[in-house]
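FAQ: What does the model actually see?

It sees only this:
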Amino acid sequence: MLALLGHNIEEIRPLVALRALVLSLLAGVLLYALLRLLLKDGLRAALVASVILVLFFTYGHVYAFLEPLQPLGFSPGRHRFLLPLWLLLFVSGIRWALRRRDLSGLTQGLNTISAVVLLFPLAQIALFGLRSLQASQVVQAQQAPFELQLPQDPPDIYYIVLDAYARDDILRQDLGLDNRPFLDELRELGFYIAPCSQSNYAQTQLSLTSSLNFTYLPDLSPEFQPGQTSRAGVAEFLRHNRARQALEGLGYTVIAFETGFKVTEWEDADIFLTRPSNPYGELQVLEGMNDFEVLFLRSTAGLALIDATALLPQFIQQDLENPSRIHYERIRYGLDELKRMPERSGPKFVFAHLVSPHPPFVFNAQGEFEVTDQDDLEGYRQQIRFLNREIIPILQTLIEQSDTPPVILLQADHGAIHMPPGKRMAILNAYYLPRGGQDLLYENISPVNSFRLIFDYYFGGNFGLLEDGSYFSSYQQPFDFTLIKDPRADCAPE
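And it is asked to produce this:
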């Protein structure tokens, strides 16, 4: 449990693991107590319980390791092979534990090994917390007043991020989806669409941190350099970014949404909007399993049950599906609340990170709840069709019902995750900049320059524009960047 939490600590809050951790501990204690009652021997009961628990908690990991070998031919990475093997290990392990004579020395050795093994994830979690604290101090130390002026009628500013929304040429050529009608509707509303826009980075945390601080990551912190593997400081720079600081200093109300992705949940915003059905936050006390709990269950022998979902009782199937249902509700709630934003008195800065069309795929084209495998490209196309249908009326409402024409950024943080690096960076990037602001836009503008242009034009700033660059990196080496050239033929520099 702690190892899985430590491995994912950059993406989730520790609270999401609390319920599963408590239940796992209780299950282990009850198993030990029952075996001690049956065997009348505490050390032997502990050894038998350990055999059972090790086999239960390692099954999913072994399955995940062996499953990729299947395309090569015969592989034991299937339940019909692995389950009998695990049953054999279970019987053999129990027999060995019951026949073992010298238990005191073995127990001491196993306890030492367990303590050492526990130290690794605990240290990983603690180190992440320490680095996050240090980053928070750096962010606070770097805060400085911005030389900006509040206009007479300050516009509301909307930063709407459609996670992993690919550019039209990638959608058409690689995914078989003609997105031009949607883009034409945006243009009719007055949007400028940058036809050659690429994201500055390939991952949400990196991309949004760059765009909201309107600079490249190496210029933010010396920690964001090649060779570094921890993203610990990125979250702090993202939550308390320079764009937010500048607008708060001008008296703007900051409004943010529940997203399910901790680094884009600005819970300390002036207004943080969450689903009414989520009164206990990430604990989800009154709801079914959360994402982490399903992930944890898939790392255990529970994987065999999950893969046999059709054979399970209906209430268990619904519980396993609960994270997808919650994701569906989050997106729906975010879209509904965006429509109501003009009702709130301004000026306001609205940050809406909608984790779609990024997996999980939970919408069909009509907006109904329908779960599709994340490797299914049709599922991605369905999310695009749904969003196209929903976004236009929302934007129309924001424009028509605002007393002062708003500034709207409709932007992807990166492109489709199914695409190779050269095409993953191509993104939807659309701007509604009233009062002549769009005259400053150009075809390959990238997110790093969005707020620079807005602050210079509407608030008298003097930031200027940076050179637009697109840098790919892997999740394992997040700061080892590779410059990506635009794959669109008519966008390539001469």
